[in-house]
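Fig. S4 source data, part A: sequence.
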Amino acid sequence: MPAPRTTLRRSIAAAAALPLLAVALTACGYGSEAKDDDTKKANVSAGNKKLSADTVKIGYFPNLTHATALVGIQEGIIAKELGGTEVKPSTFNAGPSEIEALNAGSIDIGFIGPSPSINGFTKSKGKSLRIIGGSASGGVKLVVNPKKIKTLDDLKGKKIATPQLGNTQDVAFLNWISEKGWKVDAQSGKGDVSVVRTDNKVTPDAYKSGSIDGAWVPEPTASKLVAQGAKVLLDESTLWPDNKFVITNIIVSQKFLTEHRDVVEAVLRGSVNTNAWINANPDKAKASANTALKTLSGKELPADVIDPAWKSIQFTDDPLAATLDTEAKHAVKAGLLDRTDLTGIYDLKPLNKILKAAGKPEVADAGLGVK
């Protein structure tokens, strides 16, 4: 029998209950340049079929690992598939706040990492969300102060930052420490290595001040540290089969999926088309993502940050479901997640329908799809 679904331990549940950090962007009618009275008549997709929702609220992070959303919205690729259905984007600083927004109906679809997806699914006993597609792989590195740390063994006794207790990188680093045979208390971060939970926004300052000796972080934070003199000691992709692991999923509230499956399919078509455009036009896509980041944050990334960061991320429609299952097991092993059953976390039928129509190979759910 599969293991029973259980909730996360108190610390993770508390993190998920943090107030929303979403910064709602000004709603824009990306899907149509028609006058207001024309837009109200019907929501018509690119295939001239009326869609079932007037708007779709999409959440994502202002991070390069969320470039499918950054570029897809910036270039109007997602909106093109939605026709008259209006895109309402919102950005978030942390996974728990995006999950909270999804549960509250503040967003319908989200681009998000695997750990928040797992946490949201398990906390709701499998009733809140589904993963409906992939977005990105890779883009996570261990970067260190080369004056203090020259080899992986030198990490013992040092202070290494991760973005948040129980987040995707935190779980990965704790698992790596465990496989080294070292001991760290997952909750406090104390042990043979000091795991310091530090928001990605302040990690560069923490490194510059010397309060941390390195960090296991996603891009572009890793490349920001390298620009300050840090050295890449390990690329997490080298720890995974075929050098691939999920860093960004596409999730949807089950309510929205049930009521507006046509809109979900339109967003997925836009995502697939965006990833195809990114992979065919890497330099243009990188510039587009940087323009979107400038709009969101007020400044773009310099070349010495965005160039190496961009190269380390793979954009893919495949959610790499087997790697999510492995990450969940790592969280259980670290004591951050109770043993849980993830069956039903995926619904890849809409995505596979789109991929098949486009003549592309279908993707697998690792046995964790809806029955």
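Fig. S4 source data, part B ends here. The longest strand covers residues 129-138.
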